[in-house]
Amino acid sequence: MKLAVAGKGGAGKTTFCATAARLVARTGRRVIAIDGDTNPNLHAAMGVGVGADGATIDEPLSLPASLVSRRFDGPALTVDVDTVLHDYALVAPDGVFILRMGIPEHPDEGCMCSAHATVSAVLADLDAQPDTMTILDLEASPEHLSRGTARHADVLLLIAEPYFRSLEAVRLQAQLAAETTIGRVAVVANKCRTEADVMAIEEFCARHGIELLGVLPWSDAVLDADAATTPLLDHDEVGPVVSAIAAVVERIEQPGPATINEMAR
Ligand SMILES: Nc1ncnc2c1ncn2[C@@H]1O[C@H](COP(=O)(O)OP(=O)(O)OP(=O)(O)O)[C@@H](O)[C@H]1O
Ligand SMILES: [Mg+2]
Q: Which of 152, 188, 194, 197 could form a disulfide with 123 if both were Cys (CB 3.0 to 4.6 A apart)?
C-alpha cells in the first residue's frame, strides 16, 4: 500500500504522516515514510534528529538524483529499494524507515525536477513490496501533481482545514489527481473545532464528489507536542487526534468509499 498525503500549507500533512507511519509500524508491518517536501521536517515530527534542547542533531541523507535513470515510462531506480533503504534511511521510533527527497543545496541551482523524479522512482519500485506501507508526505505546492511525484501511489489523501482557501487548494488538487492513475483520492478533515466545521467539509466533499475518509479534531495537545519537540504519538498517545488518525489508517485499507464520519465527531 502506497499512500501519498497532500493539501494546503500547514493543513497538518506532516503531523498526520508522522503519526500514521508509527501507528502502522506498531502493527508489525514494514513502513517507509518519505519526506517529499523540499523543506523537510518529517523526521523531526517522528522524533528523529531533535535533541532534548530542541536543536537538530541528526538528519536523514537526501536521496541523490544519481539513484535514478530516466526511461520512456518514467524515472526508475538504478539500484533496488533495499539498497536505497540501507544507504539512505534513518530509522525512526517503532522501526519506521525515513527517506528524504533531495533538497536545494545552494541558491540559484534551478528546479527540483530530479528530486521529484527520485521519489517517483522509489514509489514505483515499491510495487514489488506488497507487505510494506509507504507514506509520502508531500509539499503544499501542487507541483507534486504536475511532476508526477506521487503517480505510483494507490491512495492520495488531501488534508483539509475547515476554511475556504484550504478547501479551494484541496479542490484544485483533487481535480488534477482525477486525471492521474491514482486509484483513490479522499479528504481527511483536520483542525475541526465545531460541528459547523465538520458540516462545512462534509458539504464541500458532497458537492465535489470527493470521499471524506476521516475527521481529526482541533487539539491544543498537537501544538504542545510541537512546542516540546516531541512527536504527537509520544505526547498524547491516547488523545483525540491520534485516535482519529488511527481510524483513518484503518479505513484506508478497507475498499470503497467509507461512510461519513459520525464516529469521528
Ligand atoms: N489537529 C490539530 N490541532 C491543532 N493543531 C494542529 C493539528 N494538526 C496540525 N496542527 C498544527 O498545525 C501546524 C502545521 O502542521 P503540519 O506541519 O503537520 O502541517 P503541514 O501540512 O505538514 O505543513 P507544511 O505545508 O508546512 O508541510 C503545526 O503547528 C501543528 O502542530
Ligand atoms: Mg509538512
A: 152
Handedness of CA 14, 17, 20, 25 (dihedral sign): negative
The reply to whether the predicted model has a pTM over 0.85 is yes
Amino acid at 126: L
Q: Ligand 1 — pocket residues by CB below 6 A?
A: 7, 9-15, 37, 140, 190-191, 216, 218-219, 222-223, 226, 241
Nine-digit cell at 92? Answer: 525512526
Separation of CA 176 and ligand 1 centre (Å): 23
First vs last C-alpha separation in the chain? 27
Q: Please calculate the CA angle 239-16-187 and round it to the nearest 5 degrees.
A: 110
Return mean pLDDT, the chain.
90
Cell (9 digits) for 87: 544507504
CA dihedral 2, 14, 253, 27 (to 10 degrees): 100
Whole-angstrom distance, CA of residue 164 vs CA of residue 161 = 8
Burial label for 98, CB within 10 Å (0-12, 13-18, 19+), is: buried
Quote the ligand 2 centre to 15 CA distance (angstroms).
7
Confidence check: pLDDT of 58 > 80: no
Question: How many Cα atoms occupy the beta-carbon half-sphere of 209 within 13 Å?
Answer: 2
Q: How many CA atoms lie within 13 A of 152 on its CB side?
A: 21
